[in-house]
Amino acid sequence: MSHAELDLLSKQVSECRRCPRLVAWRERVAREKRAAFRDEEYWGRPVPAFGDPASSVVVVGLAPAAHGANRTGRMFTGDRSGDWLYRALHRAGFANQARSVDVDDGLALENVFVTAAVRCAPPENKPTPMERESCRPWLEAELDALSELRVIVVLGGFAYQQTLRILASRGHPIPRPKPRFGHGAEVEICDGLTLICSYHPSQQNTFTGRLTEEMFDQIWHRARQLAAA
């Protein structure tokens, strides 16, 4: 994918209004704001992907957080899940810094592309099946355009299921029976393309110890190994 292609796709994503419930919710959140961010101007639109357009590793999350990416306009930026993700990417050599605060914080990614199955912040982090499918073409377009793609890291079961649907529709052989989602599970899709499962770095997982930084680091170490193979 060229920078021009990425810029065009990002523009198209940010203008999407396909899902009335999500449009209403993201814009309501942007108007009402959280008290801690009351002086900030929220993005309040669909959030485009972020990263290196020549990546061999792609990260697929669930959706923007209401007061994270829906506020900042950049995937996994401005919330604790993003703090976890970009710290881990920095430790693994995929990011130039561990800091992820806003679009002007200087963060740059190398050989990794960060996206999500749904581009608007959904109420209670729960997109409907219709919203999931309405958003599907954006992820499809990105996966199709990443010509160097070798590794897909899915964060959580929602991203796992949607990524498998897309790969199957593209004619990739999905193992049968379909492998169960689990942290560290790997699915070899075809020669040279592997899917790695990770628990999502949500507070529900990180605060409870279900996901530790050591566990998360193992995912990115493996992704780098596979990307270099």
Low-confidence spans: pLDDT under 50, at least 5 residues? none
Residue-averaged pLDDT: 95
Radius of gyration: 16 Å
Order of helices and strands: HHEEHHEHEHEEHH
The CATH architecture is: 3-Layer(aba) Sandwich
Overall tally of domains: 1
What's the story with the biggest beta sheet? 6 strands, mixed
Beta fraction? 5-15%
Distance between the amino and carboxyl termini = 21 Å
Class, according to the CATH hierarchy? Answer: Alpha Beta
Number of strands: 6
Structure in a nutshell:
The protein has 229 residues and is α/β, with parallel strands linked by helices. It is built from 8 helices and 6 strands, in the order ααββααβαβαββαα. The protein has a 6-stranded mixed sheet with strand order 1-3-2-4-6-5, with helices on both faces.
Characterization of this structure:
The chain is of the alpha/beta class and 229 residues long. It has a single domain (3-228), classed as Uracil-DNA Glycosylase, subunit E (3-Layer(aba) Sandwich). Helices cover 40% and strands 12% of the residues. It has eight helices and six strands; from the N terminus they run ααββααβαβαββαα. α4 crosses α8 (213-228). The mean pLDDT is 95.
